[in-house]
Amino acid sequence: MFSNHFELSFPADIQNLSLVENAIEGLAEQGTIPDTVFGNVMVACTEATLNAIHHGSSDDASKSVKLRVEIQDDELNIYVHDDGDGFDHENLPDPTQPENIEKASGRGIFIIRNLADELEFLENGSSIKMTFSLNVPVVAEA
Predict the structure, then answer these.
(1) Could you tell me which of 51, 66, 52 has the C-alpha nearest to residue 107?
(2) What is the DSSP letter of 11?
(3) Sign, Cα dihedral of 59, 118, 109, 76
(4) What's the CA gap between 93 and 114, in Å, rounded?
(5) CATH 3.40.30.10 fits 3-133, yes or no
(6) What is the pTM of this model?
(7) Of residues 88, 80, 31, 92, the one with CA closest to residue 51
(8) Partners of 118 in the β-ladder
(9) Nearest to residue 35, comparing CAs of 140, 138, 125?
(10) Spatial separation of the C-alpha atoms in residues 95 and 36, rounded to whole Å
(11) Which sign, positive or negative, has the C-alpha torsion 86, 89, 95, 100?
(12) Where are the domains of the chain?
């Protein structure tokens, strides 16, 4: 049982997405994120960061994106915050509906909702909290 956290802050530039990817990979290399949830965490974090850069900060590198990671016992909480005004997260179009299937955007939140164990919208949607369980059942070998 341990508690740990770290934060990253960077300009809202797509080239800085690698900072987030490297941070998540580092947690996996330390053994903090089990292999069974690593893919979910990586994809959800990159989607959230892309949304913060593109939608929240309008690709404006003078604005910043913040990533905060908190690890407590068997839970990983990841916060992504942008400098935007937020958005109406209650009325997002369903990307699986026929009228939305071919749209170029609108899948990020849907993906995050399906990968994270919990998703919360904070500060009118300019921040999100993704929660992932790190308590992975051990499968006995036969």
Answers:
(1) 51
(2) E
(3) positive
(4) 15
(5) no
(6) 0.86
(7) 80
(8) 131
(9) 138
(10) 26
(11) negative
(12) 3-133
Give the Cα separation of 55 and 53 in Å (integer): 6
Amino acid at 48: A
DSSP state of 115: H
- CA angle 17/18/24 to nearest 5° reads 100
Residue type at position 36: T
Tokens of residue 3, six digits: 């508690």
pLDDT (tens digit per residue) in 51-84: 999 999 999 999 999 999 999 889 999 999 999 8
DSSP alpha helix (H) spans, the chain: 17-29, 35-51, 108-115
| Spatial CB neighbours of 54, under 8 Å, sequence gap ≥ 6 | 14
Residue 128, exposed/middle/buried by CB under 10 A (0-12, 13-18, 19+)?
A: buried
Summarised one tens digit per residue, pLDDT across range 19-36 is 999 999 999 999 889 999
Give the number of C-alpha atoms closer than 13 A to the C-alpha of residue 78, restricted to the C-beta side: 29
